[in-house]
Amino acid sequence: MARAPKSQRRAFGKGEVLMPPPPAPAEALSSCLDQLRSSWRREGSLAAIWQDWPNLAGAQLAPHCRPLNLQGGMLTVGASHPQWRQALLYSRPQLLAALRAAGHGIKDLRIQQHHGQAKVELDSEASIWARHPSRIDVHGMDHCPRCGRPSPAGEMALWGHCGFCRRSELAQVMPVATDMPMDDNTGAAQ
Fold it and tell me: How confident is the model at residue 18 (pLDDT cuts 50, 70, 90)?
């Protein structure tokens, strides 16, 4: 019968108590990340290619082309424009060699046109506020044709009446959910 090492045994009365072994020392986060990256390469993960893509494709190609799929050693690369697709086709041998030299098990490349989602440029809060219909310093004041109250002219130009009349108009078209009878069991509107 095997006996536990002395570091795990503690005297307790007339016998001994077995203690769990001390935990392994903590590893640095950088070494954990390095292990993750190397396992990505060993397993042939698309994430590893994404990680290395700017260095593999180069500063000119990388922003316009991206790896899309990796299946059975076949890497599918998408280009954002026909000209970039043509550039990828010309540099295909160099890209394939760079992928293999970086430790990726790529057998072949498939290059295709890929129109990624365009980045939507959102207006800044300041530009939205600058043209907001309720700004009287921009649009001036007018009187609502429905209720006769003084109101921002931008609201009248947008809806044909003031914001208060617009709200009451919308309340008549779309009843508020709290006015609907509620189900006693679920608390949801019936």
Answer: confident
Asked if residue 89 lies in contact with residue 79, where contact means CB atoms within 8 angstroms, the answer is no
Strands (E), 23-172: 65-71, 74-79, 108-113, 141-143, 150-152
What are the strands of the beta sheet with 65-71, ordered from one edge? 65-71, 74-79, 108-113
- Whether residue 103 has pLDDT greater than 60: yes
Between CA 117 and CA 132 the distance in angstroms is 29
**Residues 112-168: pLDDT tens digits?**
988 776 666 778 888 888 888 888 888 889 999 999 999 998 888 888 999 889 888
Interatomic CA distance for residues 86 and 113, integer angstroms: 10
For residue 55, the tally of other CB atoms under 10 A from its CB is: 11
Q: How far apart are CA 179 and CA 153, in angstroms?
A: 32
Token output for 19? 């203690």
CB 153 within 8 A of CB 134: no
Report the pLDDT value the prediction gives residue 175, as an integer from 0 to 100: 65
Residue 66 one-letter amino acid: R
Q: What is the pTM of this model?
A: 0.46
Count of other CB atoms within 10 angstroms of residue 50: 13
Q: Quick one: angle between helices 92-101 and 46-61, nearest 10? A: 130
CB 151 within 8 A of CB 162: yes
